[in-house]
Design a protein that fits this description.
This protein is of the alpha+beta class and 558 residues long. It is built from nine helices and 28 strands. It has a four-stranded antiparallel β-sheet, with no helix packed on it. A four-stranded antiparallel β-sheet has the order 5-6-7-8, with no helix packed on it. A four-stranded antiparallel β-sheet has the order 9-10-11-12, with no helix packed on it. A hairpin with a 4-residue loop joins strand 14 and strand 15. The relative contact order is 0.09.
């Protein structure tokens, strides 16, 4: 059925291209080939003649290769990744590696398209096939999916005060939902204040609720700071709402927005970040970094925005490109307390902003106006693919899944903190795929679906998932999720959310924003993970290190 659906799409694309790019004779020939391909996979009548000896997928591959190369390449470029993966699985001869000798290895149309997309996304592809990979096309598909996994964020949590906690979700239909509680207009849930139940001084939404103003807008990622939120649409548009004290919403005309509004100056965005220090950031499809929000004025230097700001200004309200990074393609950004971390497509990690606690990773507490490479990470010889940042600590992840940390990050007994990056000894042997940091806490998700969490704050530990008032300053697995295959997480100062590979959401910490049933007392603290009823978010499944090429593996990609 999936093959037949794909081939109907293929015929439609062929018809569109044939009409606009070929003569009538060529168009008729292309449409005839597409019809034959479609017939290979459509259900046959029960009275049909005996099946041909050649398998249908082999017939399809032979017929596809009859198309003009230009048409075939154009069709490949128009397919989404799910369709491209299904095409490769259905027609192996289009992607299987040709012998390297006696001539250079021929590259099939699927591999050629995947390599072009990897280059456009800034992914670095090794010159030789890595050990354990079965072939180039499955390997390239896995690289692309892992990069998408690092960028996805169907969950985000925030807290402005002890009375204001909130959560945001992206469900399986790409809709924006929120829940939480707060005082007056501090609810920060994207709903018009007059539509939220509660008194003038107190408002609450007890379960995940659709944001009505965003109906019809498909969302792919969400991000939250302490008092503002961002949402990224599937077409690369950014929406913001909440407080706008320092221009963190990306526009000038109001102090607060109850409902999401589009940031008009941003387009073609692939990744968003919202800091807990009134700063926001976005990465566009070409790897440019944009920052906006609060401008620290300690000498007008260490603002965490990546460029100099007028000393008389207290904010940068309109997104501005970080021109100091134009020679790099940024693939990951993290906003800490007055400082910023970025990872580039070349595997480098750079930092800038306030250097307290050694948060910049340069071995001192000095601040930096412009991005500066963290040399200690460069000296490891590893390529870094993602970063995370908290109050005074940073994390960096290698493409092999190794985790490094620095600043006020792990060693609570060390008053000087770790000013130079160091690898996490507790996670050696664990392949980390995702990481999160907020305030003095951190958590990671491994390739095996395990969740580890830790904190340096003795007074705030219930969001770690280890039980009531249980403190761990080093990574410890959340045992309450030992039977759950964790796919993604979102960590806040007071509560944490995780989603498994089926999209089921689990939460722990302060119950006011977990989206549990309304009968629970608001002041209850949930020490261990509990499932949130009637909610499924969109997640992508992580491919295993050695990819068994099958359609089912990639079916969730669409």
């Amino acid at each position: 059925m999936a093959a037949a659906t794909f081939l109907r799409r293929l015929r439609a694309l062929t018809a569109e291209l044939a009409v606009t790019s070929f003569s009538d004779e060529q168009a008729a020939e292309c449409l005839a080939v597409a019809d034959e391909l479609r017939a290979c996979f459509l259900p046959r009548p029960t009275s049909a003649t005996p099946a041909v000896s050649q398998p249908a997928e082999e017939q399809a591959a032979d017929l596809l290769q009859l198309l003009p190369p230009e048409l075939l390449a154009a069709i490949m470029s128009l397919l989404d990744m799910g369709s491209l993966a299904r095409l490769a699985a259905t027609c192996p001869s289009l992607w299987r590696d040709a012998p390297a000798l006696p001539t250079p290895r021929a590259i099939g149309p699927v591999e050629a398209e995947l390599r072009q997309r990897a280059g456009a996304r800034g992914l670095v592809v090794s010159a030789s096939l890595p050990e354990g990979a079965i072939s180039w096309v499955p390997y390239l598909l896995a690289c692309y999916l892992r990069d998408a996994l690092r960028r996805q964020a169907p969950l985000a949590v925030g807290s402005m005060s002890t009375e204001c906690r909130f959560s945001t979700f992206v469900d399986r239909e790409d809709r924006l939902l929120t829940c939480g509680r707060g005082m007056g207009r501090e609810l920060l849930l994207g709903h018009a204040v007059e539509l939220v139940a509660g008194s003038h001084n107190f408002c609450e939404i007890s379960s995940p609720t659709l944001v009505l103003s965003m109906q019809g807008t498909r969302i792919v990622s969400v991000a939250t700071g302490c008092c503002h939120c961002l949402a990224l649409s599937t077409v690369g548009e950014v929406y913001s709402w909440g407080c706008n004290s320092y221009g963190e919403l990306g526009y000038l005309d109001q102090d607060m927005a109850d409902t999401p509004s589009r940031i008009e100056s941003l387009s073609h965005i692939e990744h968003i970040a919202a800091g807990h220090d009134y700063v926001s950031a976005a990465i566009d499809e070409t790897g440019n970094l944009y920052t906006w929000g609060r401008a620290f004025t300690n000498g007008g230097l260490d603002n965490g925005l990546g460029y100099e700001v007028d000393p008389q200004a207290d904010c940068q309200p309109i997104p501005r490109r970080v021109d100091a990074l134009l020679q790099h393609r940024v693939v990951s950004v993290a906003l800490g307390e007055g400082f910023t971390l970025v990872a580039t497509d070349g595997g480098a990690v750079l930092s800038f902003g306030h250097g307290a606690h050694g948060a910049l990773g340069h071995g001192s507490s000095e601040s930096e106006v412009l991005p500066r490479r963290i040399e200690a990470l460069a000296q490891t010889g590893r390529r870094f693919v993602a970063v995370a940042a908290g109050y005074g600590h940073g994390l960096a992840l290698t493409e092999e899944g190794e985790l490094y940390g620095w600043g006020k990050w792990q060693h609570a007994e060390d008053p000087l903190h770790q000013r130079v990056p160091e690898r996490f000894a507790e996670l050696v042997g664990k392949q980390v795929k995702l990481m999160y940091a907020v305030d003095s806490s951190s958590c990671v998700v491994t390739e095996n679906g395990e969740l580890f969490s830790w904190s340096l704050n003795f007074d705030s530990t219930n969001h770690l998932g280890h039980g009531m008032d249980t403190f761990h300053c080093r990574p410890k697995r959340v045992e309450g999720l030992s039977r759950v295959q964790v796919a993604v997480a979102a960590m806040g100062c007071d509560h944490t959310l995780v989603a498994d590979e089926d999209g089921v959401v689990w939460g722990f910490g302060h119950s006011g924003a977990l989206g549990l049933d309304a009968t629970r007392p608001r002041a209850v603290i949930v020490g261990h993970p509990v499932p949130i009823p009637a909610l499924r978010v969109r997640v992508r499944r992580s491919p295993p290190p050695v990819v068994p090429f099958s359609v089912s593996l990639w079916g969730c990609w669409c």
